[in-house]
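Proteins fold reproducibly. Look at a sample protein:
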Amino acid sequence: MTGRVLAAVAAVMWIASAGPGAPGPGDRRTTAVEAGGSASFPLSAESGDYIVGRLESPNHPFDLVLVDADGADVRRLLEGNTGAGQFHFVVPGSGMALEARNGGKSGFEVVLEIERQVPLAAQTGMPETFLSPKIADLAERIAGGGDTGAFWEERAAEGTPMIEPAEREGHVIATFLWRGATQNVRLWGGPAADHTWMERLGDSDVWYASFVVPDSARLTYGFAPDVPQFDGTERENRVALLATLQADPLNLSPVYLDAPDRWAQRSQMVLAKAPEQPGMDGPLPEARGTVEPIAYTSQRLGNIRTVDIYTPAGFDPAATDTVLLFLFDGPAYQTDRAPVPEILDRLIADGSLPPVVAVLIDPMDNRLRGAELPCNPDFADAMAEELLPLVEVRLGLTADPARTVVSGSSYGGLASAWIVHRRPESFGSGIVLSGSFWWAPDGYDRQGTPYMSSLWMKDAPEDVRLWLSAGIYETGRAPGEVSILETSRHLRDVMRMRSVDVTYREYVGGHDYLVWRGALAEALLGLFGSS
């Protein structure tokens, strides 16, 4: 019989000299076995060796059994094999043999080959691989006795993250780097759905995390070195990163330039093909708008808060083309991470936008924000029945619902979609930035439909306009977890099914004001712009 030629793959040399019946890696032994008989192939192997082999018995049933030094069965490797059957096992002791048993009614030839044998001492695992070629080169340099000094000098000169070409068109390899932590480093933000634990390069001072990302990415990130980990809940250990979270010291584009220290700063990565953000660049106009804080006392909500009102330069309350923008998390949208007044100054001055009045609403604190923004009917009604009339009287204007837009990000995005749905007679447009549509009230039975989608599916108000956006990294942290990206797409599809005027955008970014500032400007231009 002529057997099929098999590739000989030998990891190591045979440990001991093989006798006439002991096959070594790459050896093929052909033996004729009579009906009901067997052929023995002694193993030259030590306890713990890993062995891969193949038994060929075309169209004729053979069993292959591992037997001990006394000939007793230890393990059946193949049963009724009628072709080229592969087997794998770890040698449990010395003096073992492989026994091929003919289970047919006539004699037949059988072919045995040992393809690979790996001694216990050589079972060290897969070699470490690196996504980044420069990290791979550095690992080789360190293994050869070199140090990391030149690598860090180059990083300081070029800035971080380290960007390298990727094989996939339209993508790059982005490597985030931290120098010198003792226990661990966690990447906050970045191109991932969750904060990423970074790897240490051997026992060097290099901690790294590499990603293949689209070359249009824009995102904020920070590092938390030596995060305390302790006997507590998973969430308690997770939020412990806030204790050491800080900016990347080698990043050349810090966020919050006026921050008092590195812990208050963050860093940004803006790749070559990141989309332009309207209103972010260029000199500010000579005539600029003003921001005036007012006190808003809510009888319905039972609290008092500050609301900042931006009015553009030369504002005329009688103008019929004025856009009235209500924006949640107002203080955050007045920082250099999302400078809404400056964005509006530029876009209004160059004629891209008509006059825009922005009502920037302070959430006061996280507890109150979490109670008011997620689909709270009292809050929605307070916006329509208290704050909107207050702004109208304060500025001497009459709001046009078609040009009155409510907007926000995260919980603020959820609230925006909710308020347009509940009070369309007051707020005829909504700009939803990374809406938290995973949220549902207690007792809601999802049955595969997010709560906000179910509201719009049941009842879609007429003559409203929505502008939705999400980041491609706003996915679930765990398998099966409902995400912002997933639920935003679902709501978009429901609105289109109900013939709602909706625009949808996805950005190469995450849950990030750096993304939301551009999305907000794009949305205002799309809804109310001159072109």
